[in-house]
């Protein structure tokens, strides 16, 4: 018998209702298209599932204080994080309100898809399996494990930031990889969770870029960021140095 998933059906109905909202959506493709993109998570006793847990246990064994700080920094990520890592602490929602509003809306739409997927698969978090995995971040993540919401957000932001500021694309790609790996370092996600999150985040962002509303928002974001850099020369200098290294800051 074919399994029926209630959460994706509810998400689809909410998506249809939202199309009639006053504000144009960045994402107009039906949720089912994204649900079909990911396979189920690997079974615990499959080669991929065993590799997932062995990777986490080995990472935990070798985890350093600096890696714990990296994982905790990523745990606290928000829609401005990639910009703040590149441009510095002045890259805030107060200084860039249009950028913040755009990324927040896009991230909310991303969440509708990913949360339904989490409910659909209900994969147990690695630290809840009684196999010796200990998370190193203070908070207990909401929801189940597959796909990774942090990774999906990181991939979404990577694409949108890169569309607005293509001169820093290499940096944003490295930042997305840092987010994905830090969720494994933290002990809260399997590697396959983060890969799935990255794939679906990329797919959602690229689909968003097909809509006029998203493309217009990207243009506004670029204009606002460039104006911000003119007012904050120290941020421009920081960005040049970070882009030259091609890596986000690490603790």
State mean pLDDT (0 to 100 scale). Answer: 91
Portion of residues in beta strands equals under 5%
Oligomer state equals: single chain
Report the radius of gyration as a whole number of Å.
19 Å
Strand tally: 0
Considering DSSP H and I runs of 4 or more, what fraction of the residues is helical? 55-70%
The CATH class: Mainly Alpha
Q: What is the domain total for the residues? A: 1
Major sheet attributes: none
CATH architecture: Up-down Bundle
- Overall 3D shape: globular
Q: Termini distance?
A: 50 Å
Element string (H = helix, E = strand): HHHHHHHHHHH
Question: With helices defined by DSSP (H or I, 4 residues minimum), what is the helix count?
Answer: 11
**Structural class of the secondary elements?**
mainly alpha
Poorly predicted spans: 13-21
Let me know the CATH homologous superfamily: Phosphatidic acid phosphatase type 2/haloperoxidase
Summarize, please:
By secondary structure, this protein is mainly α. It contains 11 helices and no strands. It comes from Termitidicoccus mucosus.
Give a structural overview.
- With 251 residues, the chain is an all-alpha fold.
- The protein has one domain: Vanadium-containing Chloroperoxidase, domain 1, CATH 1.20.144.
- It is 64% helix and 0% strand.
- It is built from eleven helices and no strands.
Please outline the helices and strands.
Layout: H1 6-18, H2 31-35, H3 47-62, H4 65-75, H5 81-87, H6 97-121, H7 149-164, H8 169-185, H9 191-208, H10 212-231, H11 233-245
Helix pairs in contact: 1-6, 4-8, 6-7, 7-8, 7-9, 7-10, 8-9
């Amino acid at each position: 018998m074919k399994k029926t998933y209630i959460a994706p059906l509810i998400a689809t109905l909410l998506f249809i209702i939202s199309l009639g909202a006053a504000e144009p959506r960045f994402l107009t493709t039906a949720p089912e298209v994204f649900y079909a993109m990911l396979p189920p998570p690997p079974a615990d006793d499959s080669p991929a599932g065993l590799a997932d847990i062995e990777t986490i246990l080995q990472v935990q064994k070798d985890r350093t204080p600096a890696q714990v700080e990296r994982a905790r920094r990523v745990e606290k990520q928000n829609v401005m994080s990639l910009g703040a890592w590149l441009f510095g602490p002045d890259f805030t929602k107060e200084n860039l309100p249009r950028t913040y509003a755009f990324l927040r809306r896009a991230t909310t739409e991303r969440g509708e898809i990913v949360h339904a997927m989490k409910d659909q698969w209900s994969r147990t978090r690695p630290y809840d399996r009684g196999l010796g995995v200990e998370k190193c971040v203070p908070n207990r993540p909401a929801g189940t494990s597959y796909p990774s919401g942090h990774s999906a957000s990181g991939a979404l932001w990577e694409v949108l930031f890169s569309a607005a500021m293509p001169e820093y694309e290499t940096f944003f790609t490295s930042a997305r990889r840092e987010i994905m790996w830090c969720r494994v370092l933290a002990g809260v996600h399997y590697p396959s969770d983060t890969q799935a999150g990255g794939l679906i985040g990329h797919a959602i962002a690229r689909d968003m870029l097909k809509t006029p509303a998203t493309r217009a928002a990207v243009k506004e974001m670029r204009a606002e960021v460039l104006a911000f850099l003119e007012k904050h020369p120290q941020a421009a200098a920081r960005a040049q140095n970070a882009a030259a290294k091609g890596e986000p800051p690490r603790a």
